[in-house]
Amino acid sequence: MSAVWRVAALRGAIAFEAPVRPLLVLALLGAAIAATALASLLTGSYGLAWSEVAALLARPEAGSMGSTVVWEFRFPRLLAALLTGAMLALSGAILQGITRNPLADPSLVGVSQGAALAVVALIVLWPGAMPGLRPVAAFGGAMAVAALILSLSRGDAGGATLRFVLMGIGVAAFVSAVTGAMLTYGRLEAAQAALGWLAGSLHAAGWGEVRVLALVLLGLCPALVWAGRPISALRFGPEVATGLGLAVQPARVLLVLLSVALAAAAVSAVGPLGFVGLVAPHVAQRLARSGPGLHLVLSAATGALMVGLADLIGRAAFAPLQIPAGLVTALVGSPLFALLILRSQSRRTL
Fold it and tell me: pTM score, two decimals?
């Protein structure tokens, strides 16, 4: 029997209880994120010692090169990577929980494809548009495609989940085909600019993107706290969830919208990052099994670590050449996910 950590206040009116192992894993993930953050702040063509970085973070020096490098380039890029990874992982964990499909991720509901189509259309059809409009277009495209899939998959509680998955695959494939046609027949310069965004790079991330990501995540925190209970009920199927007193259809719609909002904000800020929403919840579950609420926290920490490491590797592996974080997550995430599937199948056969 696993050990349990309990905290109570106000004579038991407020209580928290959680297994010890997931909390230890969460602490280790936090330490790994801190180590990755330090390495990210130290890595670059402009050399800095860790003591210099600590001093500049505590007290920025106006006009100094070190302060500019840390505060204007490395620190916002680091925060954008961590926030993006956490939000994509949360989106994937919610989708996998409500669909009961371990292969569900943000691209299943057309978030990445809708964002890509909107940005490619903006670049190809309106080359003179301000770059600041790209995040707005990406968010709008992601939400529009996800809303279309959600409306097409409406039906009875028993079949809505499968219909949602199938509609998502079909619409996402159609949107990807339209995006590919625009890249093929659009002007070469515009297509190259669009491909740079589609690679999922964090090199241009600044404080503007960090503010948007932080505000969205903070604004959705109450919904994330609420999400644990309906996900816990939906894991047993719509019939059992209804018997437990859950309004299945409204809860499913709200959870899908929550997942889409998280992923859309992340994709609109830095572009598509493949396999984060798919792999991070699986890795979190492998590290420590827990209830839905704590699983969301573990998934967020795992996703933040994945994207932080991907950006660090992309910057340092072939410096001064920088590899977009989206390419690194795809190259590392696909074999990792295949390994997880193979290990799961081998355990079932034993």
Answer: 0.88
